[in-house]
Every structure is written in structure tokens, then in C-alpha cells.
Write a structure and sequence with these properties.
The protein is 75% helix and 0% strand. With 270 residues, it is mostly helical.
């Protein structure tokens, strides 16, 4: 009995410490430019790889296989979580930012800045591909597969995004996502979803990843699929996460907001 009480006591203390650290670091506006830059740079890299796969396959005459194209974004997200997850939370996706906010792990007042940063990063990546390779490979645009209608592709995007966001929220509910488990789980899910569902909808799961190439190439015929689908999928995932685990946790707040090293803060003030 004493052991159980001790565990509960330690859990309560740990949660309090997490909340204090989150509020201390995340509410410091001096770090905001770093968070915004992290989302711009991270989204740039993600869209560069995700859209760039199709572009490089086109200009290289098939030098990049379909499997390579869908696995590469998962590996890139994994790397991004490792190198900047503690700065901004490594959202890289408006659907993820909205999900964290609805879940209660992320303040709504920061949502517009994060989404704007993601849009800037995505468009910059599409412009880079355009400057390097012209409109090869339709700039890696995501479109429904052959014989797949818009509604069917949208439903697939809803389901895929719900799984992705549940993976992100789930690895954030304990002290797991800033580190090995979160990076591996999220990266693996993106690769896995692409491997089997890319021929159906392109497995975008990210409005910015799809909108950026569409904006630069000026073709919006299928853009609605990749805006509506991921947003509805994110809403579904938040509902499922509540059913599975109840209220938002302090660890989830840390994962969503990022924790900048306090030693770095002290060093910068000296």
C-alpha cells in the first residue's frame, strides 16, 4: 500500500515539474523566433523530401523508386524530431498543430504563427524545387491515384491522418515523444502509410505538403482533398485520443510546445 502511494506521489511531483518547466520555457517570448524558425526550416526539409522525390524521379529517368519516395519523408521527420523537437515540438503540419490545440496541449494564440511558418517553409521548398528543376514531376504534387475519385482519396486522407495524429498524440501522452520512441513511431507510420496507400491518395496527411506545390504550379483542382481530409482526420484523432486516454497530460504539453535547454538560456544571458 505504501509503495502504491509512493508511486502516485512521485507521479504527481513529476507532473508538477513538467508543468513548471513547460510554462517556464514555452512562455518565454524571447525564444519565439527560434520556434518559428524551427517550424519554417523543418517544414522546408519535409516538403523538400516529400515533393522532391517525384521531381527527382522525373529528372533522373526513374532513378528513385516509388518505395524510396514514400519512405524518405518518414526518415526526414524522424531526423527533424531528433534535432529540433525540443525547440518547437516539430509540428511541421497544420493538422498536427490544430490537433494539439484542440487537445489542450498547445495555446490557440500561437496556432496562427505556427501555421504561417509551416506555409512559408512549404512554399519555400516548392520554390526551391521549381528553381532547380522547373516543373518536372509536377513539383511532386499529390493527386488521387489512377481511377480514384476525389471523395475516395479524401476518405483515405481522413483515415491516414487520423492514424498519424493518433500516433503523435499517443507518443506525447507520456514522456516518450521527445526522444527515441516518438521519432521512430511517427517516422515509421509516415513510411508505412505511404508504402500501401500512396497509390490511392498520395498519402499526404499534411495540407502544406500538398498546397505548396499546387500554389507554385498554379493548379488547385485537387487541393481541397488535401486540406479537408487531413483536418477532418486530425479532429477524429483528437476524439479517439480522448476516448483512449482521457484528458490531456503535462507530458503532452511538453511534446507539443518544445522545451529549450535552460543551460543554453543561462549561457545566452551571460
Amino acid at each position: 500500500m505504501k509503495s502504491k502511494n509512493k508511486v502516485r506521489s512521485n507521479t504527481s511531483v513529476n507532473r508538477s515539474m513538467l508543468n513548471v518547466q513547460a510554462s517556464h520555457d514555452f512562455l518565454d517570448s524571447a525564444f519565439e523566433w527560434r520556434r518559428i524558425f524551427a517550424e519554417i526550416w523543418g517544414t522546408f526539409l519535409l516538403v523538400l523530401v516529400a515533393a522532391g522525390g517525384g521531381v527527382v524521379r522525373d529528372v533522373s529517368g526513374g532513378g528513385v523508386s516509388s518505395a524510396m519516395i514514400v519512405v524518405a519523408p518518414g526518415l526526414m521527420v524522424m531526423a527533424i524530431i531528433y534535432f529540433m523537437g525540443t525547440v518547437s515540438g516539430a509540428h511541421l503540419n497544420p493538422a498536427v498543430t490544430l490537433a494539439f490545440a484542440i487537445r489542450g496541449n498547445f495555446p490557440w494564440r500561437r496556432v496562427p504563427g505556427y501555421i504561417l511558418a509551416q506555409v512559408i517553409g512549404g512554399i519555400a521548398a516548392a520554390l526551391f524545387l521549381r528553381a532547380m528543376f522547373g516543373t518536372a514531376g509536377s513539383l511532386g504534387a499529390t493527386v488521387p491515384g489512377i481511377g480514384m475519385g476525389g471523395v475516395k482519396a479524401m476518405v483515405m486522407e481522413i483515415v491516414l491522418t487520423a492514424g498519424l495524429v493518433n500516433t503523435i498524440l499517443g507518443t506525447s501522452s507520456g514522456a516518450r515523444n521527445i526522444g527515441t520512441n516518438g521519432a521512430l513511431a511517427v517516422g515509421a507510420y509516415i513510411a508505412l502509410a505511404g508504402l500501401w496507400a500512396s497509390p490511392i491518395s498520395g498519402a499526404s496527411m499534411n495540407p502544406v505538403r500538398s498546397l505548396a506545390p499546387d500554389l507554385v504550379r498554379g493548379d488547385f483542382h485537387t487541393s481541397w482533398i488535401y486540406v479537408v481530409g487531413p483536418i477532418l482526420g486530425a479532429l477524429m484523432a483528437v476524439l479517439f485520443e480522448w476516448i483512449l486516454k482521457g484528458k490531456a497530460t503535462a507530458a503532452g504539453t511538453l511534446a507539443a510546445q518544445g522545451i529549450l535547454d535552460e543551460e543554453d538560456e543561462s549561457a545566452s544571458n551571460e
